[in-house]
Amino acid sequence: MEEPEMQLKGKKVTDKFTESVYVLANEPSVALYRLQEHVRRSLPELAQHKADMQRWEEQSQGAIYTVEYACSAVKNLVDSSVYFRSVEGLLKQAISIRDHMNASAQGHSPEEPSPPSSA
């Protein structure tokens, strides 16, 4: 009869011991220590990732600025096509006037047939 009683007492002791170990393992100071260990291990890697992300953000911002500037330049070129057409018309007109003046200086007009020479 003593054996079941001893088993019961042994079970109570082991249960209490397990509970004590569990409480000690999960005590707040132990939890804070484990948290500190985790932070100490992972912080350098996280800091490196943060620095990489900041560098990539700066590069991205520079690329975005470049693309926006290029788009603006292209838009300005498209908007200035009216002026280019105007300049083209003026150049054609100037060439026509020059040709007319050259023809007049030579004594005949390119639009009018040269008069037959009478001798």
From TrEMBL:
Protein keywords: Lysosome, Membrane
Entry's localization field: Lysosome membrane
One GO process term, biological-process aspect: heart development
Signal sequence residues: none
Main location: membrane
Top-level taxon of the source organism: Eukaryota
Family listed: Belongs to the BORCS8 family.
Name used for this protein in its record: BLOC-1 related complex subunit 8
Species, as recorded: Papio anubis
